[in-house]
Amino acid sequence: MLYHFLYPYAHDFIAFNLFRYISFRTGGAILTSLMICFIFGPRLIRWLRAKQGEGQPIREDGPETHFKKKGTPTMGGLMILVSVVVSTLLWVELTNTYTWIVLLVTIGFGLVGFADDYQKLTKRNVRGVPGKIRLTAQIFIALAATYGIMQTAGVNPHTTSVAVPFFKDLWIPLGSLFIVFATFVMVGASNAVNLTDGLDGLATVPVLIVALCFGIISYLVGNYVFANYLQIVFIPGAGELSVFCGALVGACLGFLWFNTPPAQVFMGDTGSLALGSSLGAIALIIKHEVVLAIIGGLFVMETLSVILQVASFKMTGRRIFKMAPLHHHFEKLGWSEPTVVIRFWIIACILALIGMSTLKLR
């Protein structure tokens, strides 16, 4: 919005020329979303606490240390959603279709998560919206977003293909199967972040790290000179997604202020489903879907632990882990919550370095 209002007057006020630069607007988005969280976060937490009473229901079969969290309000993802949407609209070039697609995906999945959180609070159980209904809504949103991405990309040989990291020109053509693949990426990323969001601050920092990496990659992919030098696909308009990623980084930093152990508020499905879906949508647009699985490897590990646990128990009657998702397994082993969280953050940083290395190691 500021780009459209102020940049046209750059010939009168030279300072307004800064708004033409994606890097400047990305920095503005980071600071704006961060300040929105700092200013409105405490008020939102007080309002949520007043409305929710007993707060988020706690799993009875979960680690014993979690029972002391009773009364902590949930739906803190509203703080993230509001700050991301407002700061993105303020700093992005509004004519960019890719940004609108990612914003609508984020809001759509956020609404699904909000409905799930609301059900948990009103019914006072951990189940929320029935899984089939929630999954159907997610698939519908993902399909609509996939159509939008394909239409915006236009006639491009790489639109329905998947790039293989560490190789210059190795692409896997999917054709019409790309629709299924893209839907899986968005829905899978959304639920993977949701599964990871089980400890104070555990999901927030890895999402921040992925958003930071994707902000850099989006800028490079949207710049012909850099894309050509790095031998990655050039996607006109993708650079504006850096602004969205910046807003996401600022929102996660701001939310982390209130979500560090002991958390004053949980993001809930409102936040986790929205965050995961946005990362999946961005990965599809910038054609770095496999890199998402590398940088966001922590989310993959958490999801696989649940899949393996369920499969093992159904087939053999035995459990591989003491409890799934994976972070609960280490809690059961005696690790304190801060220890699990910080060590998982370290793993997320290492995976991010590996993922970013794919830009040069080709």
Main beta sheet strand tally, sense and closure: 2 strands, antiparallel
Oligomer: single chain
Q: Give helix % range.
A: 55-70%
Radius of gyration: 20 Å
Q: What's the number of helices?
A: 14
Q: How is the largest sheet built, in terms of strand order?
A: 1-2
Distance between the ends: 38 Å
Along the chain, the helix and strand elements come as HHHHHEEHHHHHHHHH
Strand content: under 5%
Query: Could you list the spans in which at least 5 consecutive residues all have pLDDT below 50?
Result: none
Number of DSSP strand runs: 2
Residue-averaged pLDDT, rounded?
A: 91
Gross geometry: globular
Give the helix/strand class. mainly alpha
Features:
14 helices; mainly alpha; two-stranded antiparallel sheet; 362 residues
Describe this structure as you would to a colleague.
The protein is mostly helical and 362 residues long. The protein has a domain at 96-222 and 229-236 and 267-357. The protein has 14 helices and two strands; from the N terminus they run αααααββααααααααα. The protein has helices spanning 2-6, 22-52, 77-91, 97-123, 131-153, 177-196, 204-221, 224-230, 241-259, 268-285, 289-295, 297-316, 326-332, 337-357, and strands spanning 161-163, 171-173. Strands 1-2 form a two-stranded antiparallel ribbon. Helix 2 (22-52) runs parallel beside helix 9 (241-259). The model has no long low-confidence stretch (mean pLDDT 91).
